[in-house]
Each structure stands twice: as structure tokens, then as C-alpha cells.
Amino acid sequence: MKLRSLLALALLTLGVTAAPALRADDPVPREIALTANDAMQFSLAELTAAPGEKIALKLTHVGKLPKTAMGHNWMLFAALPEAEITKLLMDAMKNAPDYLPADRSSILARTKLLGGGESDTVVFTAPAKPGAYPFYCSFPGHFAMMKGKLVVK
Ligand code: CO
User: Fold this and answer.
1) What is the 152 CA–ligand 1 centroid distance (Å)?
2) Cα(26) to centroid of ligand 1, in Å?
3) Which end of the chain is more exposed for a tag (fewer CB within 10 A), N or C?
């Protein structure tokens, strides 16, 4: 395995368990801008990344409704079967005010829950393994519409 791949794997492992401290020689993350609106829509259904690429995803809620009525977040999951992710999202719906599942071991990255006019950026390392990684908004009732995939290739 090449050193670069090993480094990406190490970053991924660190990223899942704890946020690694930023170092001066770390690559600058590539920014992806995503919006969500009062009609329960993300602006993009498909995002792409290179294996192990460092990404800064900025979610902006461009609506006007408060987060108690129309909250949005961006939650990236491991490539699990859809039924398992649905289970996690059903659990998350019960957990106000942040709507996180009790088992967070499959969440690869997430923003905070936002209301209209707010934004949040999450910096993470894309998975090293090519594939399609699903993302959702975990606010109650939103995951059927607010979903997409991060394609790593
Ligand atoms: Co939402």
C-alpha cells in the first residue's frame, strides 16, 4: 500500500473516532456548498469526492422558518443497507433537539441542526474506499425527501 493511501486511511480512522488536530502541513479542504430550504429540499442530491479527500461541507439553510419547525442538518453515513440507516433515522427522530441516533458509530460526518438563515461547516476526510455514501437530514419527517449520496471515486 502506498504511503498516501496509508495516510488517508489513518486520517479516516481518526476522523471517525475524534476530530484530528489541524496541522500546518495538512491539505486545505475543498469546499462544497450545499443549501436547504423551507420546502424540505437539499440543493444537491449527489456530491463527489476522491478517496481520502479532505472536504469542508458548508450547509446553509436559505429558508426563513425556525429550526423547531423546519430544522435541517447534513448527516453522512457509512455505506450501510438502506433499512439499517432508516432504523437509525427513525431513532434520531425521537431525540430532540439535535435529532441524533443513540448509536452514532455509522455517522461519518454531520453539521449542526440549523434554522432559517443559519449555516454550519463540517470538515471531514472522505472515505478511502470508493462507493456511494448516503446523506440525510435527520429532522423528523425529512429523511424521505432530504437525501442524497456522496460518491467517492
Ligand atoms: Co431538514
Assistant:
1) 24
2) 32
3) N
Query: Looking at this protein, which amino acid is placed at residue 80?
Result: L
Q: What is the distance in A from the centroid of ligand 1 to the CA of 106?
A: 19
Q: Are strands 30-36 and 54-61 parallel, antiparallel or unpaired?
A: parallel
Which residues hold their Cβ within 5 A of ligand 1, which is an ion? 72, 137, 139, 142, 146
Answer whether residue 14 is part of any domain: no
Answer whether residue 53 is part of any domain: yes
The Cα 49–Cα 141 span in angstroms is 28
With a cut of 50, say whether residue 20 has pLDDT above it. yes
CATH number at residue 121: 2.60.40.420
pLDDT tens-digit readout, 25-78: 678 999 999 999 999 999 999 999 999 999 999 999 999 999 999 999 999 999
Average pLDDT estimate for 7-25: 54
Q: Which residue range is the domain that position 73 belongs to? A: 22-152
